Structure formats: structure tokens, C-alpha cells
Amino acid sequence: MTEIKGQKVFLGVSGPVTGRTNTKTTDREAKDASALDDSTYELFSTESDVSLPYAKIDAWAKFPDFQQRYSAAVQKQIALDRLMIGFHGLKAAPQTNLTEFPMLQDVNKGWLQIAREQIPEQVLKEGKVAGKVTLGEGGDYANLDALVHDTKQMVDERVRDGGDLIAIIGSDLLAADKAKLYAKQGDLPTEKERIEDAQVIATYGGLPSFSVPFFPVNIVVVTSFDNLSIYFQDSSWRKQTVDNPKRSRVEDYNSRNEGYVIEQLEKFAMTENVELVKA
Predict the structure, then answer these.
(1) What is the pLDDT of residues 49-65, one digit of tens each?
(2) Domain 5-276 CATH (choose: 3.30.300, 3.30.530, 3.30.1660, 3.90.1690)
(3) Which residue blocks in 89-129 are alpha helix, DSSP H?
């Protein structure tokens, strides 16, 4: 991106474009094939600053590829931080506080918070019991398949069956479902191996399902991977390495302006506050 604020750049097709016009009485009208909403994005200054003490540099100097290893480790952590913000970010505070917000909730507004604010009708927060959606025998949903299926129904019907939807499922929900499989089939060596290799069920509610790093443990999201974007300003990436003898370390400063975007809001649905029913 070149601007701090602006229109989203989604260029896909958001619904049917085929029809027929009686040109004897009516002009043909080209349909807008862009996203159904005209929401905007906003980028915020984001810092990823790290340091390396002289003592560690000296200890690792024997590795000829030390610089590459270090750089790869830093880049991996920055990537994981961006995912964490995407799933936990609530706001962009002027001054962040890692102690108070250990999941980086105050660095930026992530995808889940954007959905809560912009499409609350596509976010299920509670069922029969206020403040929670219950999963299990006697709950709002008997099993995870039913929960994912119902979440999918909140996706706009014009994009619901495009073939690219997936389910992102919290680890606690997946673990509970896997525990049921262990209870039923875990005594058979071949079945136990399949369960541990996560090959038994690749889909829930008819959708390919995934567990991703730092995704909240009690949430289900239905969307497509390419619907979740991180925008950054091209000219804002800055990197500077400083040798700081006063602190006996080398400091690496990285900054950019970035923000989180759901490209097609109508292609996103979420069920949160899922609580497992105790047997």
C-alpha cells in the first residue's frame, strides 16, 4: 500500500454476474464485481525491535552461518507476532504494554475484532445460555460438525459455495473431539497412529479444517485464507542496526505501518465463547 488510509484493494468477484436484458426496452447494465462492502483500511506504526548481547554474539561466533540463523529466527518471530495480533488484537494503543497485554491485544485491531465491530450479525456469541455457546450432549450443538456447519450458514449465500471456504478451529475444541476418538478407538494400534497423525478427520461440517498458531482456543471461524490480509505501506519499512556499547549489545530496529483487513466481510463468519459441556 502507498497510503495510510484508503479503500480495500480486493479485486475478486463477489457474486453472480450472469443474466439477460431485454435490450428493446432496457439498456444492459454492467454489474459491480468488486466486494459488496466499501469499508476502508487504516495502517498503524508497528515496531519489532530486538537486541543481542555481546556475550551471545561471541559465543555463537563459531557458527559461520550465525547471521543467517539469527535473521531467520527474528523474521519467524515477527511473522508469529503478526498472526497473534490478527487473532487477538483489540486496538492500536499509542503506547503498548506487553505486561498487561501479553497476546499483543493493544498493537493493532485484528481480524476477529474487525468482525465483531463491522459484521456483528455474522458473529455468534451466545446460545441458549447467555454469554456462551455450548458444545456437547445437551448443549447448543451436539458436535463440532454441527457447529462448523451452522457457522458456515452465516456466510453470505452468494459466496458460501465457491469452493474455497475453510474452517479455523480452536485447539481446545479439536482436542476434545480427538479425545472422543481416543476413547472409542485408541486401543487399536493402527487407529491410534492415525489419530495421532491427525489423519482421521480433515474436515468438519463439510469444510477443510485447520488449527493455526495463536488462534483462540474456543472459537470457530469460517472464511477463506486469502480473505485475511495484512496491509503495509511500501515506503514505511525501516530497519537500522545499532551497536550500543553502553548496554553491551547490538540493537536491531524494525518498523513499518501496517493494518489488518477482511477483504470480503460477507465471506467471514465466527462463533466464539464456545464452552464444552462436561460429561
Answers:
(1) 999 999 999 998 888 99
(2) 3.90.1690
(3) 111-118
